[in-house]
Amino acid sequence: MIESTVVDMRAPYLIMIGDVHDPLYAKTGFGIVQWRRDQVAGQLRFAGCPVDMGVPDLTVQEAKAAGAASLVIGVAPVGGEIPESWWAVIEEAAAAGLDIVCGLHIRLQDYPAIVEAANVSGARLIDVRVPPRKLPVGTGRKRSGKRVLMVGTDCAVGKKYSALALDQALRGAGIKSTFRATGQTGIMIAGSGIPIDAVVSDFVSGAAELLSPDNEADHWDVIEGQGSLFHPGYAAVSLGLLHGSQPDAIVLCHEAGRTEIDEWDGFTLPGIAECIALNLLNGKLTNPSIRCVGVSVNTSSLPAAEREGWLAALSAETGLPCVDPLVEGMQAIVNNMLSS
């Protein structure tokens, strides 16, 4: 039987964000800090790096002395490459005996100096973005159990955070729930999943089916979304994930104040209602009963005094509960999910 990718990471972690200048591209590090703070020893930043995850700054040697067991590459830049200037530090970490954990579109085994350093020290090289072999093509067959998928107006708008918060809220309400990770950070947090954007396109929907198999009738799989149907670069993975997830419900995720697709100048973000409508239209192919149960919004860019009114206006516009999962939590969306 084909299984999800399983990642065995040794804590505590030293999270490397190097010289990244945009917090969006340090989302792997921020996600681990948010959801696994007790397993983080600190961050490794180069001089002049403006991004700060709010954990101690440590060098490789300081982290080793503090008991760190793994160096986690905490960035997710467009294209998934590591800057050349980072490799000497990664080699130092491997030589010091720290496992190297990487979720980018590269393979650590392809870098001889890193392999040699790890072989000498006994460190492990862990590539997270490796999907299972021999994935099936999607069938569209109706599966038992219930599923809710996070969809978005863009990349990096909070789909992972929303899924984790929703899973947490469901469990808190005594509902059977499982978080299903589809990206590198989610897999690192959950310990397993399938890196959907590393799957050959013909098998994306099949991988999503595998990720959320038949289950008990009252069990919810909470599926982390990827990309956006409106993204000129990543819409394909979003569509395959939507079809294969066969969701009974979707949660639309958005960042307040964002007006363009990030890093794709000239591509305007869709309206909330437009995005919900397109996801429902496409989702009906494999689940005619699909519905949207709420809107999850990253409101960190809004002045605190404006947040509540902004969300209330959006709720009036959509007729749906609209929340910031890290402020209000997801209970209002849970209530709507369970209402029918």
From TrEMBL:
Protein name: EBNA-1 nuclear protein
Domain D-glutamate N-acetyltransferase-like C-terminal, first and last residues per copy: 137-334
Native species: Woeseia oceani
InterPro entries named in the record: DgcN-like (IPR011669), DgcN-like_C (IPR035086), DgcN-like_N (IPR035402), P-loop_NTPase (IPR027417)
Domain of life per record: Bacteria
Gene3D superfamilies from the UniProt entry: NAD(P)-binding Rossmann-like Domain (3.40.50.720), P-loop containing nucleotide triphosphate hydrolases (3.40.50.300)
Domain D-glutamate N-acetyltransferase-like N-terminal intervals: 47-131
Lineage: Bacteria, Pseudomonadati, Pseudomonadota, Gammaproteobacteria, Woeseiales
